[in-house]
Amino acid sequence: MTVEPRSLEGRVVLVTGGGSGLGRAICVRLAREGAVPVAADIAGASETASLTGGPAITLDVTDPDAVRGRMEELFDRYGDAFDGLVNDAGTDQGAGLLDITDEQWAQVIAVNQSGPLYTSREFLRQAVKRASDAAPADIVNIISISAITVGTDAAAYNSSKAALAKLTEVMQREAGEYRWPVRVHGIMPSAMNTPMMEQWHLSSEVMMDPDAVARSVTFLLTLPADTFVQNLVINSRREPDWPR
């Protein structure tokens, strides 16, 4: 039996955090390979759309009502062609345990942990309701290598990404047990040369190019329909202190 890879041609993929950094790189890579990326962010999405030719929407992933409305709009507009969600929206408030404020903690947890739950939940509800005989839809959670490593002054970020890694495993388990027409993938990249990393003052020489991770996203989306990736760790060979 020959198992064929899936094509990206014409597939509509929502990318949260698509206004900059890795999210923008994912949108650009998707467009190059024939997909229609929907850049979603609280800012910068229109600039990404100018690079891809795809649509842009304003979306705050921490607002469950806004997420529900946007997801319904996209399914109504694109139908079965809308079959991809990349949860890339993320934030980092670097602070140690003694210094982190309640507001910093709440913001990181809201974006990195609650956001993927809200978007995935609404995507799954719509996908299950509109299930067809087509190939399964895809959810890709951009987790972080921080889910399995420990960093000083990164209590909120490490905690939120570890929680997202476990949420991803739960989603994968339920997708299998309930036979949802959706497969769920997880990616754990190490440090990338993006604006979010500027606060850590890492050398660009040891960080990955975001397009390397974007290529991994397109790889997952094009895997044969009976395949998924549980948690793929992607690390830079130039990072001397891994794991850190």
What is the CATH architecture annotation?
3-Layer(aba) Sandwich
Could you name the CATH class? Alpha Beta
Briefly note the CATH topology name. Rossmann fold
Strand order of the largest sheet: 3-2-1-4-5-6-7
How much helicity do the residues have? Answer: 40-55%
Q: Could you tell me how far the N terminus lies from the C terminus, measured between alpha carbons in angstroms?
A: 43 Å
Note the overall shape: globular
Proportion of β residues?
15-25%
CATH homologous superfamily annotation: NAD(P)-binding Rossmann-like Domain
What's the number of helices?
Answer: 6
What would you report as the Rg, rounded to the nearest angstrom? 17 Å
Largest β sheet strand count, sense and barrel closure? 7 strands, parallel
Q: Could you list the spans in which at least 5 consecutive residues all have pLDDT below 50? A: none
Multimeric status of the protein: single chain
Annotation, overall tally of beta strands: 7
How many domains, in number, for the residues?
1
Description of the structure:
This protein starts with 11 loop residues before the first strand and ends in a 10-residue tail after the last strand. With 244 residues, it is of the alpha/beta class. The chain is 40% helix and 15% strand. The model has no long low-confidence stretch (mean pLDDT 88). The chain is globular, with a radius of gyration of 17 Å. Helix 1 crosses helix 6 and helix 3 (64-78) packs parallel to helix 4 (102-129). It has one domain (12-127, 135-234): NAD(P)-binding Rossmann-like Domain (Rossmann fold), CATH 3.40.50. The protein contains 6 helices and 7 strands, in the order βαβαβαβαβαβαβ. Strand 1, helix 1 (21-32) and strand 2 form a beta-alpha-beta unit.
